Amino acid sequence: MDLAIDSPSLGEHGMVRVLFPPRWQQQPWRRWPVLYLLHGCCEVADYESWTRFTDVREFTADKEVIVVMPSDGPAGMYSAWHNHGMVDIPDWETFHLTEVRQILERNFRAGERRAVAGVSIGGFGAMHYAFRHPDMFDAAASYSGMLNTMGPLIPAVVKGILIREGYYDWRALWGDDRIAPHLWRSHNPYDNVESLRGTDLYVSSGNGLSGPLDDGPGFDVLEPAALRTSESFVRKLRRRDIPVTTDFYGPGTHSWPYWERALHRSWPLLSRDFYR
C-alpha cells in the first residue's frame, strides 16, 4: 500500500510504501513489529526504491512484520533542517518517527517492536534515528552508510550532495560546520555512540572495487568513503565496549545488489526482538 500523507512537518505531501505480513487481514486483533527501510539520497525511485531494486517483497512475504519505506525526498538527510533558526520545515525526522508512526499504529496495527535499516545516506539515517530515539528501535543496520559526518573530507561530501540536488545554501541543513560544529555533532552517529548502547547494531560496507555482484571491472568512489566512516564508527563503538556486528566484505560497489544481500544477512539481528 502506498500512503500519501499531508504532513505538517514537511509542508507538503510525503509518500510511504508499506508491505503487510501474510496474516495481517486474518488477525485483526494483533499488533505487528515494524521494520523501517530507508533509501539513500538523490534516489529518483525515492520511496519505491527498495521494492524496485531488491527482493524485499519476496523476502518478507513469509515474515510477520510490517515493512515501512518512507520518502526522504531528494536529500532530506533524515533530519529536521535548521534553516538558520528561522523555520522548522522540512522536518523529516518528525514526519517519519511521529506522523508516519502514529498513522501506522492508529490505522494499521503497528506495534512497539521496531527495527530500522538503510542504505548510503539511509544508513546514516538508521543510526541517526537509533541514537536520537534510543527507546524506539530495538535494532539498527547501516549498509554502506556515512556514519561519521564530521570525519575527514566528509562535510565536503555532504555539502556537495546538497548543492548537486539544488540546495545551494547547504547551511540550511545543520548550519556551518566550521562555525556551529555542535549542530553537526548533534546529528553525527560517531559523536553519539553512547546513546546506541543496548541497541542491536549491524554495519556493512564494501571497498569500492568490483565484486561478485557487479557486472564487470571498475571502481566506485562513494563506497570507500562509506567504508572509512563505517570503520571509524565501529572502532569507536568497540573502544566503548558497545557490541556491533560487522560485515566489511571487501570487493563491492555502492549499489543495490550488495544492499539486498546485506538485508538478508542482517535479518536475524534486525528481527531478534520482534517476537519476544
From TrEMBL:
Record Pfam families: Esterase
Domain of life (superkingdom): Bacteria
GO molecular function: acyltransferase activity, transferring groups other than amino-acyl groups
Cited InterPro entries: AB_hydrolase_fold, Esterase-like, Mycobacterial_A85_antigen
Protein name: Esterase family protein
Organism this protein belongs to: Actinopolyspora mortivallis
